[in-house]
Amino acid sequence: MPFWKEKSDHSHDSGRPSNDSGVPPLPQYTQSAHQAPPTRFQTRFASLSLHQENRVRFLHFPQQVINLCRDAIRATWPKGIDSEQDYAGAWEIKTNGHPWGGFRDQSESSRVVCAMLKTLHEQGRVMTLTTDVTKKEFDKDTLVFRHQAPAPAPCDWFSVAFSKYDRLTLQDAPHEVHRLLIDRLQQSNGYKVEKHGEEAPGIYELNLNGNPWVGEGKDTVRVRELVLTLIETLDSEGWTVYASMSQKTAANGTDNDTWYCCRPKGWTGAPVYHN
Q1: Among residues 122, 107, 111, 117, which one has the least CA distance to residue 164?
Q2: Is 29 domain-assigned?
Q3: What angle do CA 189, 190, 195 make, to 5 degrees?
Q4: Which domain holds residue 60?
C-alpha cells in the first residue's frame, strides 16, 4: 500500500490530523472560555436641588427616602409645606414662605437643609458632589448623593453661614465651638471678632472687623486665611465640612455659601479621617 494512502487512512480513523510531525495539538476550548464577564458593580446616584425661593426637588431617590425628607422639612420649617408634584421626573416639594429667599424668614432655612442632609446620611445617601450646572440667574447648587450600605455612623450636625458683609452665623453649634473659634480668631493675624452673642435660640453670631466677604486687593488673601483658621478649628474638634452650598437668593443675584458640618456621635478626641 502506498505510504501516502496509509497516512491518509490513519488521519481519517483518528478524526484529527496526524501529529507525527511533533507539532503540539490545538488547545481544546471549553464552554467556560466563552462565558460572559461578571456583572460590574454599579452605584446608584440621586440628587437634591433647591429652586426659586421655596422649592426642593428630589431626583432618583426612593419614595421612602423622600417621605423621610418630607417629615424633616415639616419638623424644621415652621411655615410648613404648601404643595407637592411630579416635576419632569423629579419630586418637588413647595414650602410656604421663602426659605431660599433673601427675606428675614430665611434664617431658619439652614435648619431645613441640615435636617435633610442628616436624614439622607442616616439612610446611606452620602453626598459626593456639590455643583452648579446652569447659568440661570438666582440658580442654586445641586447636591449629588451615592447610596452606601451599610449607612455611615450617626453624626451630630450644625451649619455655618457667611452672613451680610462681616458676620459668621453658627446655627446649633456646640458652645465649645463658639468659644474656640473666637479664641483662634483673636490670636490670628487676620480678622478679629468685634462682638458676638446669641441672636436667637441656637443661632450664635460673630461680628468681624472690616468687611471680609466683600474685600478687595490683599483682603482677598486675608479672608482665605480666615477660612483656613475656621476649618482648622473645626477639624481640631472632630468636625467635617460635609457640604458647602449656595442656597439663598440675594437681591443682586449674588450670595455666599453655607457650610454644613458633621461629627460622629460620641466623638472622644480621636483623629477624624475624611474621604
Answers
A1: 107
A2: no
A3: 115
A4: 45-264
